[in-house]
Amino acid sequence: MRIGVQGCCHGILDNLYSLASKHNVELLIIGGDFQALRNLSDFHGISVPQKFKRLGDFHKYYSQEKVAPILTIFVGGNHEASNYLEELPYGGWIAPNIYYMGRSSVICIGNLRIAGISGIYSEFDYRKGRYERLPYEYKMLKSVYHTREFDVLSLKSLRLPIDIFLSHDWPRGIEQHGDTAKLLKNKPFFRKEVEKNDLGSPALEEIINSVKPRYWFAAHLHTRFAATVHHNKINPSDYRNVFEQGGSQSSDEQQENSKKARTEVDTVPNPKPSLENGDHNDDASQTPSTLTTHFLALDKCLPRRSYFEVIEVEPSKPFQDGDLYMKYDPEWLSIIRAMQPFQSNSVEQTPLPSLDELQKLIDKERQWVEENIVQKHKLGILRNFTPTAPFHSREITDKMIPVTSVNPQTTSFLQLIGLQPEGNEPSLSSSVKNEDEIEL
């Protein structure tokens, strides 16, 4: 599959789709800071300095004035319309052909198994529940996008191989698996964090060491960086980072390739790692290829920055008629059901099970998923986007506060997996005027 990978998006969709279309990509993956602002009232749900606030392009895709020409998936970052994304904690369509991966999830596109986690790490909020509610106080505006241990444990419980993992943050220590000197030359202010082994997320470090995906794409730190993690540490010289430029090239050739990278596009060869269908993620059951993770972080969407690249990923099985069929992942659905008793809507997180205890719960839930979803052919992800807020117009201003609504997609998903939705019945949200706002 020909995949376009984008770093931070910052609401710039028109130019991105124009660029991706020129390179005939079948799937577009965005590493966060998507900024899905539907109207001006959504500024109450985004953590962005006032001078950087702009509506961006997304509202045109939300109102269907435009339709995304390429199937797009993304995870959330630390500059998001969190009030909208929180309507879809398990993932869903934020506009036609644009799919949010939720707080954490695994989906299948074609025959690629793709996992993702949203947000960035904060030690202060890591072990808290999901307590944030509109209208967001200042602290909530920050904590709402902080990664939680709940989601990390869910992903660490995966036992079947993952083709692609998507995050906004970097796994901690990933810089040690690439050209650290080059990274520090480009970003010298990272040095203290690197020396303290504090660059990136310790939670994602746990995930990459546990899940061992074939590819890992990230953004957030606004620089291009490639690395290779050899999980089995056998004959590391046999592997090469498929995203790195240069190698045995001359200085002139390396300089030319560097210029090419800065024009935002490069095509990466496919190392063709195989995808095993075993029951466990054990070293003995995987090929060396599945024990190697090719990591690539990209820059933000600005001129002369390396923010977009094209890669070729070979699926484990061939597509039929070129259809990028999207499906829920049975193992992930089992994990969601197993983790449901530990969900917390308050500051205090319900005590979480050990990984061994969780695996036993997942095994029990797998039978339910098999009987009620897999055997009944209900794995397909429906194209059921439904607007839940008014479209951008003169009537909707930034002095209005968005109102929480239960997204019908979340309700449908919880019904699919046999869980009762929380909150009120789905209804179209509106925006109300903030009576405490001073007119200027």
Walkthrough of the structure:
- It is found in: Nucleus.
- This protein has 12 helices and 16 strands.
- By secondary structure, the chain is an alpha/beta fold.
- It has one domain.
- A hairpin with a 2-residue loop joins β4 and β5.
- α5 packs parallel to α8 and α10 packs across α11.
- It is globular, with a radius of gyration of 21 Å.
- The termini are far apart.
Task: Detail the topology: elements first, then pairings.
Layout: E1 2-6, H1 14-22, E2 27-30, H2 58-62, E3 71-74, H3 82-85, E4 92-95, E5 98-100, E6 104-109, E7 112-117, H4 138-143, H5 149-156, E8 164-167, H6 180-186, H7 191-195, H8 202-211, E9 215-218, E10 225-230, H9 251-262, E11 267-268, E12 292-297, E13 308-312, E14 326-328, H10 330-339, H11 355-374, E15 400-402, H12 408-416, E16 431-433
Parallel strand pairs: 1-2, 2-3, 3-5, 7-8, 8-9, 9-12, 11-13
Antiparallel strand pairs: 1-13, 4-5, 6-7, 6-14, 10-12, 15-16
Helix pairs in contact: 5-8, 10-11
Pfam family, one: Metallophos
Subcellular location: Nucleus
GO molecular function, one term: RNA lariat debranching enzyme activity
Descriptive key words:
440 residues, disordered C terminus, 12 helices, seven-stranded mixed beta sheet, alpha/beta, 24% helix, 16 strands
State the order of secondary-structure elements, H for helix, E for strand.
EHEHEHEEEEHHEHHHEEHEEEEHHEHE
Q: Looking at the structure, what is the overall shape?
A: globular
Secondary-structure content class: alpha/beta
The Cα radius of gyration reads: 21 Å
**What fraction, in percent, of the residue positions are helical?**
10-25%
